[in-house]
Amino acid sequence: MDDPFVLAGQELSSRLILGTGGAPSLDALASAVRASGTAMCTVAMRRIDTDTKGSVLDVLDRSGVRILPNTAGCRTAREAVTTAELAREALETDWVKLEVIADDETLLPDPVELLDAAQQLVAGGFTVLPYTNDDPVLARRLQQAGCAAVMPLGAPIGTGLGILNPHNIELIAAESAVPVILDAGVGTASDAALAMELGCAAVLLASAVTRAQDPAMMAEAMAAAVTAGRLARLSGRIPRRRHAEASSPRTGLAQL
Amino acid sequence: MGRAFRAGPFHVAGGHVNIVVNGDPCALPDGTTVSALLELRGAARRGIAVAVDGVVVPRQTWDRATLCDGQNVELVRAVQGG
Fold it and tell me: How is chain A split into domains, by residue range?
């Protein structure tokens, strides 16, 4: 089926975006990236540590995926904007997954700082992909600010609790003119499928794969789930009914 | 790049500047450039970005951007995340 995923004018060959955090090794990460079929992976920006062997960039370059830097760990718009500028300088991309979190316990986005940072980065020529709350109003404001997508959480980062407010995710997807990417909270394949069934254009996940007992196998499961959910969404599901409706003919029953 | 720079951080012939690099105080010869600092640290140039006092230093200026006393330098790169 011809169903391209276009993000900020670029066609991506997969609707699964893989975060690279949490993988037990670079080899495990490489296997998971390959098994996921993803076309884009996130990285974080941190102080250099010359003792570290190997580089996540080398792994991703070999995989041929697009690199999406994030602003993970930033608490203020100022920190996030500077981190995005550092990432642009280091990685030669003006795409950024914008994260501005409020605290370490919930890792929930700080809506005020997030919107401020998004506005500054859009003005600075960035392609901004904001990690946001499952709040339709904030999603609308981010879109109005010129973000290239909105990326609401299903549940807090790393919890694997799935999609806690499917109604809000559906509302955000229904009214958004830019792609909606479910970001965070996915625990297992059915969560990813549900996101796509609710109308999301893509799913971004990390821990569900990288911290699974078999990351590569879970990556394969997630890829299948995203495809299944997308097909289910496009194919038009049956309405929910209170009472049963037989699928076999009601007439022509044998008199036994 | 950084060919004029030979001294280690604590072997300083002339004047020096006291700066903070990734949270660690260090003394460097006067006129040390961003390029020289990266070389001293054994850091690759690819995939690296530099901020001085919270402002990004563009790559094409690293060879001539000299560090001044009291500056706070951050050297960052991409790692697994998010």
Answer: 5-234
**ipTM score over 0.95, yes or no:** no
Among 2.60.40.1730, 3.40.190.10, 3.50.50.60, 3.20.20.70, name the CATH number for the domain at A5-234.
3.20.20.70
Q: Is this prediction's pTM over 0.80? A: yes
Residues A100, A113 contacting (CB under 8 angstroms):
yes
Considering only CB atoms, which chain B residues are within 8 Å of A101?
A: none
Question: What does A36-62 look like in DSSP terms, one character per residue?
Answer: HT-SEEEEEEEE--TT--S-HHHHHHH
CA distance B10 to chain A (A): 20
pLDDT digits (tens, 9 = 90+) for B36-60: 999 988 887 788 999 999 999 999 9
Spatial separation of the C-alpha atoms in residues A106 and A78, rounded to whole Å: 21
8 Å CB contact between A154 and A204? no
